[in-house]
Predict the 3D structure of the following.
Amino acid sequence: MSDTSTTTDLVLDVKGLEGGYGQIQVLHGLDFHVADGEIVVILGANGAGKTTTLRAVSGMIPRTGSVKLRGEDISNAKAPDLVRKGVAHVPQGRGTLPELSVEDNLRVGAYIRDDNEVDADIDKWFGVYPVLGERKNQRAGSLSGGEQQMLAVSRALMSRPSLLLLDEPSLGLAPIIVAELFERFAEINKETGTTMLVVEQNAQLALGIGDRGYVLESGEIFTEGPADDLINDDAIRKAYLGV
Amino acid sequence: MELFLNRISDGLSNGATYALIAMALVMIFKATTLINFAQGEFAMFGGFIALVLATEQGIPMWGAVFGSMVITAVCAAGIERTLIRPFDPSDHLPLVIITLGLFLGINALAGIIWRFDPRAFPELFPSGNALTYGTATLSWYTVGTLVTIAVVSGGLTLLLNKTKIGLAFRAVSSNLESSELVGIKVGPTLQFGWAIAAAVGTLGVCVFVASPFRQLEPNVMVTGLIFAVSAAALGGLDSLGGAIVGGLAIGLVQSIAVPYLGVPSELSLLAAVAVLMLVLLFKPSGLFGTPQVERV
Amino acid sequence: MATSSPKFVFIQGTGGYRAYKFLGFAVLALLILIVAFAYNDTGSITLFDNDYKLSVTRVTKSISFMVAILGLQVVAGFTGQLSLGQGFFFGTGAYISAWLVADQNWAWFTSLLVVVPVCFLFGLLFGIPALRIKGLYLALVTLGLAAIFPSLIKLDVLLPYTGGAAGKQVDSDFIPPSWLPLDAIVDALHKIPLVGQYFGEGEGLSSKEEQRVWTFFLMTILAIICFKMVSNLIKSRPGRAIRAVRDNETSAAVNGMSLAFNKVMSFGVASALGGVGGMIYVAELGIASEGDFTQLISILFVVGMVVGGVGTLSGAVVGGLVIAFIPDWASSTQNLPLVPERWLQGPTGGLILGLGLIVVTFVLPGGVISGVRKIRDRIIQVIPQTPELGIPAGGVALQAGSTEGIEASTDGDAMSASTTADDG
């Protein structure tokens, strides 16, 4: 297709992504990419297909199209393999393992690793999110929504991924918590250079930390561009920011 | 009084077997929300393998038991891979049918290979009594069964909490999707669960028939399974600790209800089934299980 | 599932279709006749030095199983509530009728007047708490129910009625009416060239043989009545409602259908049928003993249902035959080339059924019937009639395995057009 010379510094390059649930096709040919170190945001109303997009990239639902991770074709990869390739997915609703302790949740995040820095990393995340450290032996299911979100993100980052997929991190959380959460995401991105693909309904917050964004509508990309342009675009503001 | 103590001792040692089989049921249920109806038959088959290893290969008894545990674990792993994994884990019906088929088939196979005459099983624990109090005795057998449970329980706890595969197993039991997202391969993890369950079950039957009052024959676990299921339900189908409590409780009910409430021996099975029905009707999560969310 | 030009096409409502249906019935009647008179317990087939007895008594026994499995189809195939406890109701029917006939001198069929309502009631009583228990848990509880039946029978308080562990003997036979020319029929059949030799010795029937044939006829008629009633039940409004429940519980509930009522009723019907099966069983066998009614028979009923085809009426027939004959034939097989004799002793029937169940689940989840239907559909296609217009729905073929479930199927023996998992 187009200039393949630059595709290798694209962490994620997706073309013609189609996918859905059984008979229902949700995605109708999506093209998007994420470059190294970027935070890319996918916005859209409910039902636009945002979560489905992430699930398709992660191999959790059947899909067709081309998905390349740093040039490597992962169109047929299944979910457990992706994390070994450096993709960590924080699912919608956090996906914590409720019966396991907070610490075990983090430990399981490092499942694919066999180095001896796992404990050090766990301590590091207790440092970033002190409340997790305080509750480290508690059942993860007893944590509040915001705490579980912190846990979910830390767990995902325990695998030291190069690409982090975040599915609607603000869902069901109080605004203050969400604002803090997003500040942290931006920090993590700056400090570790972890590339992020964030699917969000809260366009304002997401575009606040993002570099670029795509707006999804009925399974197709409606518009795309740098985050600043999108934030200032009147049509977007009206449709998604309620302004 | 002494009779009562003896009855308690009997109840506990019976209960120990139910507890072990119940733990096997719970292992598989935790990870897959499936009840392996053939669990008792796996265990019975394991008992026969142990017997064969001891009597025909001349392996010392405990070695035979461990050898059998390994063999049944491997077989169960194979069964999981070939017969269970091809099916969608959320659709229970075909899997229930498969386990019923295994129930029939393994029971019949044992009957074909070893016939139905009961066989004495070599003793695993020293004979005689550890304690006597008047006419009340605490046999080494009872002590042995209780120690076995303690050891198995301790071993499983270590296995599940301190090893990587144990962590994976607990993760899969808790949230399948998230487990996949962190890279856990669900199939082999479940296989591990089936293998451990089979080994524990085998140990349970071996301990059961190692009593001087019991013998091994292919139908030994046909009603035993019902007691184990009741025990597991009572304790909470996804609680290993609950399985122990449930097993001991059912064993005690059996040995105490039977003589003291004037209830004929036939009714010990009735009592166990009554417990099962009441639990599943009114408190399906049992004593220690997690309140059941419809696992999707 | 494309029907590549079936050889015969019948349009429902036309003469051709009626002829096809008539042919089906005629074949069925012929089969019944053959079974009744051929090899009336004196004959056997010999294969590889094994003696396989064919006898009408065994077929009658299989009829009892067919009716019981029919009941299981209603509750499991129909409303999707898997019950491992059908044996309980089978046993209940057996003992009730045994007691009535042996101790109260009732006639067998009159005992049904008690068996059916009692078992129906037990079924309802069970169906109500069953509403709260789903899927796997229900299977567990029903397994427990099946397991305790022998214990209940042996309870002291019931001893005078059940005969306890020794069983309840019943010496009541079915005497065929004297006007029925059974002798003449057999002799006539015997005279048919080539196949006549299979129909007895040409000397008429002994009284024992006559009883057996007559029992078989009576039970066949009873079974046909049961099957017809269930078939009507399926096609009726409540029946279609129940199928809607099975196919999609949520949408059925949303449609305001009384789920609970239908599910409980289906348990009642299933249990009543189980009881009828039990009556047939003990009428044929002559004795009710608790060892026949353990969890094993309940599991065998499930085997029969699955191997025959879940959710189908003809599957119940196949299932009954399978569980009646396979263990029998397996134990008659003492000689097979290449197989050491040692391996042919013991419960080979159980092994075959267990393996068969597993194989069927993988290879043919819809049971034998689904396989038969696939073959049949390549040869015969039946076009349904649209009710309002009275003209054939041109070109719309009813294909086995399609998921348009709620239409009454054309041959009246499918509970739904779609059964369980399509690919294992």
